Known about the structure:
Blueprint: H1 25-34, E1 39-44, H2 47-61, E2 68-69, H3 74-79, H4 82-96, E3 100-105, H5 107-112, H6 116-127, E4 134-138, H7 147-162, E5 182-185, H8 191-204, E6 208-210, H9 236-240, E7 247-251, H10 253-258, H11 262-270, E8 274-277, H12 283-297, H13 303-323, E9 327-331, H14 334-347, E10 350-356, H15 363-371, E11 380-383, H16 387-397, E12 401-404, H17 409-415, E13 419-421, H18 439-461
Parallel strand pairs: 1-2, 1-3, 3-4, 5-6, 5-7, 7-8, 9-10, 9-12, 10-11, 12-13
The structure holds iron/sulfur cluster.
Residues 24, 26, 45, 49, 52, 106-107, 142 line the site of iron/sulfur cluster.
Amino acid sequence: MTKTKSNQTNKTNYVSTTNACKLCKPLGACIAFRGIENCVPYLHGSQGCATYMRRYIISHFREPIDIASSSLSEKHAVYGGGPNLKKGILNVMEKYEAKMVGIATTCLTETIGDDVPQFLYEFNEEFGDQGLPTLVNVATPSYSGTHMEGFHATVKAVIDQLVGKTDMNTIAIAPKTIIPNVNIIPGLVSPEDLRHLRDILEDFGIAGTILPDYSDTLDAPATDEYAKIPEGGTPVADIAQMHQAKATLEFGRVLAATGNTGGELLRDRHSVPHYALGLPIGLRECDRFFATLETTTGQPTPRKYTQRRGRLVDAYVDGHKYIFGKKAVVYGEEDLCVAITAFLAEIGVKPVLCASGGKSGHFQEAITAVTQELLREPPLVKEGFDFYEIAEEIEQLQPDLLIGTSKGYPLARKLQIPLLRVGFPIHDRFGGQRTLHLGYQGTQRLYDQLVNAVLEKKQADSPVGYGYL
Ligand code: SF4
């Protein structure tokens, strides 16, 4: 498969995606639903979609994940998938005793125009006397977006359909003894990142709701008995009370620029103050996060974190001579690329290309916002890019390292340069789910890894074999 350019018009005359730099939209929905307590993700579509997504998620998180499916066939593509959807939900109720079922659509059911809210209304009418689980639905046609858009759409749908509700069929809404101070909507970060955020809230001495929270469900301890639905996740009762929080902190500069987020819905519908922040990676973005926590909670940043900040600054000084002026290519989902680029710009590494399969239309402005005061030469920013196009650009740019998911490994191997693995998915290394990216501590880990990757390359390329660098 090739992409060629017409000499006369200089326009691409054959368009295809070759090794996409994004994943399927409902896959993001399944991960988000997995972060809600006692929830089973459910795909309204064919069995193959669920199988592909399970495999992809399991290979990164190294945890089993059950994703229910309507198992639609050719017949349903013609006559509609409503009856199978209802049968499927009844099956999930019987086999899992789930308290919530999170239903995401797929390419097939969006293409044939299945009206899922109508099916669920009918389902409630038919079976409402059987003690139904809470049902949340989200439209996630994969041809219209990425896994990140599916993830964010799901978070927004959960807020839309659950916050402030007290009439859910089976959820006893027990009021929290402590009203939560803050909501945190972190986006698709790692389970380790979520645990770190929980620790930060605890150290500030405040109650908070993190939505979603798959820190236990997608990185669970070993148990003697297999649990069909692992323990953990954001309780539905807590979600229902998110409108009572003092503020919502939502991560993602690109997400914020879309003006269509769960945090904004909480603000517009329930008057919860909304703080849109970049992912807290790098000194500046972390400072903004901690300053916002101070403002919203009235508490000073605990000494543990100011000490970590100080150590990070010290490390920046110590490592500068090794990495200054190195060129990096950053790729993957837009908001993580923006955060990593902000981090690179402040440590003296030149981001030369920022590429994403996402097409939000806000990638360039977000990169500019975090780099314009720090870089003399702005990086090339490309949205809607695939790995074929990244490889083409890289030939000219000659980077010293790549930063992104494991999907960039073939490129790193070809160029014989280091790949710093971040984000999702990481399929060729162990412990991707325990990668800490956020906070001063996550930044410290990334920084140490980056410096060491540069040193290792230098050592490997040297004919002398220096043992002292
Ligand atoms: S058909 Fe669509 S929803 Fe299903 S796996 Fe493929 S891209 Fe994802």
